[in-house]
Amino acid sequence: MPSAVRFGVNYTPSQGWFHHWLDFDLDAVRADLDSIAALGLDHIRVFPLWPYFQPDRALIRPRAVEQLVRLVDAAAERGLDVNVDGLQGHLSSFDFLPAWTRTWHRRNLFTDPEVLEGQATYLRTLAAALADRPNFLGMTLGNEVNQFSAGPHPDPDRATADEIDAWLTRMLTACEKGAPGKLHLHAEYDATWYQDDMPFTPAQAARHGALTAVHSWVFNGTAQRHGRTSVPTEHHAAYLIELSKAWADDPHRPVWLQEVGAPAPLIPAEHAAAFTEATVSHALDCPDLWGITWWCSHDVSRDLADFPELEYTLGLLTNDRRPKDIARSLAGAARDHTYAPAPRTTALAVPADPAARSRCAPGGDVFDAFFRLTADGARPTTVLDSRAADPAHLAARGITEVVTSDQVLHPTRGGTRT
Predict the structure, then answer these.
(1) pLDDT for 1 beyond 90
(2) Are strands 94-95 and 90-91 parallel, antiparallel or unpaired?
(3) Of 178, 257, 379, 414, which has the most beta carbons under 10 Å away?
(4) Are 113 and 119 a contacting pair, CB within 8 Å?
């Protein structure tokens, strides 16, 4: 039977970008939300900047929290649900960390006891302030917080996978205490799935929180290697959705495509609408999809300096709130789609060992095999190599065939598919 998939957008304010919290203008926010609602979308993801909301470990600014609540209420007036990211963290190439964690007060974000207490208090406070709002979906711990934990970050806060596991448990518990029963989760960029030494692991992504979030960006080597109209580029979001399922314990755990966008120049402006249509169509062919949330709502103003060039043009709407072709493509999908994907019965075995994640990255054998199967029309999913012979697990997921990358890429050497 067809079921609902959520369509939304990551809200980037048209005036002042996320620095709008310093000069909060509810009328400007309302105008932005009107332009989003006019596209027929049903939710937004919003980003308090952590240093502006908690400039001292013992000070969470009441006025900032009140402004967040007013934004959520304004969204409700326009029929928009809201997910709130807490520990911001990292956005559009800039880091936003409070002074009480840096330089002379340098303390590890994931292991220092005082930092952990400050973070948990902050997340619990935001969640509690919104707990009674019916359009409040829940908290995301932060935006791609994993980028702080390893290279290529220039000053990483090193932690072990066990320490990250404890951090995730504590922070999600704080969100639940603040707003019981809401949809609380965490979200990382694709190094979680692709980088061998990343302490945020695929198992954590697929087992902590109410659902799994994936962020799909084809500037990670996919579009550079394969081109803008290739199978890997147009199916990359679907690949991450299906890759995440290998580690999930729940055979039907929902997956949220929480960030996906059309980055220029790899996806030129004149091709962005076609890329959007293809990406969304292929994501909708993945079972157990919770929703698609595009990055982002409004272009970054050219009056702001030092952003990477691609960040200025990612919006569905211009900086003066005019919809682009890409907005019309997403709006059409939100309005006209039918979501009733058939089960994916062919599974590609992926390494359970997190130290072998690079095999799943662009250029890896698992990545290449998945898209060889996709090009052949097989509609693959993935399964851990440690579960590939578990009949109960395979049956619960509707998998009837398991193949290895060697069988796909080198059939004469690796044997035939079974």
Answers:
(1) no
(2) antiparallel
(3) 257
(4) no
pLDDT higher than threshold 80 for residue 210:
yes
Q: Which amino acid is at 45?
A: R
Q: Please provide the average confidence, as pLDDT, over all residues in the chain.
A: 96
Instruction: Using pLDDT thresholds of 50, 70 and 90, give the confidence band for residue 414.
Output: low
The kind and range of the H/E element at 291 are: strand 289-294
DSSP assigned state of 313: G
Q: Which fold has domain 6-336?
A: TIM Barrel (3.20.20)
Compute φ and ψ for 47, nearest 5 degrees: -135, 90
How far is it, in rounded angstroms, from Cα 67 to Cα 186? Answer: 23
Residue of higher predicted confidence among 416 and 7: 7
DSSP annotation of 301 reads P
E strands, 174-261, where?
185-187, 212-216, 255-260
DSSP 124-135: HHHHHHHTT-TT
Residue 112 sits at φ, ψ, to 5 deg, of: -70, 125
**pLDDT tens digits for 363-386?**
999 999 999 999 999 999 999 999
Cα 34–39–40 angle (5° rounding)? 100
- Determine the residue type at 157: D
- Say if CB 260 and CB 223 are below 8 A apart: no
- Strand residues in 119-271 grouped as ranges (E): 136-143, 185-187, 212-216, 255-260
- Given a contact cutoff of 8 angstroms between Cβ atoms, the answer to whether 325 and 319 are in contact is no
Angstrom distance (rounded) from CA 20 to CA 144: 21
- Domain boundaries, given as residue ranges, for the chain: 6-336, 346-414
Taking 60 as the threshold, does the pLDDT of residue 80 lie above it? yes
Beta bridge mates, 348: 382, 403
Query: CB of 281 within 8 A of CB of 303?
Result: no
Model confidence at 387: pLDDT above 60:
yes
- Asked whether 81 and 43 are in contact (CB, 8 A), the reply is yes
SS3 at position 380: coil
Question: Cα dist. 411→263, 311, 345, 405, 417 in Å?
Answer: 36, 42, 20, 9, 8
Check: CB of residue 245 under 8 Å from CB of residue 253.
Answer: yes
* Whole-number Å distance between alpha carbons of 359 and 357: 5
Whole-angstrom distance, CA of residue 268 vs CA of residue 245: 31
Run of H or E including 278: helix 272-283
pLDDT digits (tens, 9 = 90+) for 303-314: 999 999 999 999
Length of the chain: 418
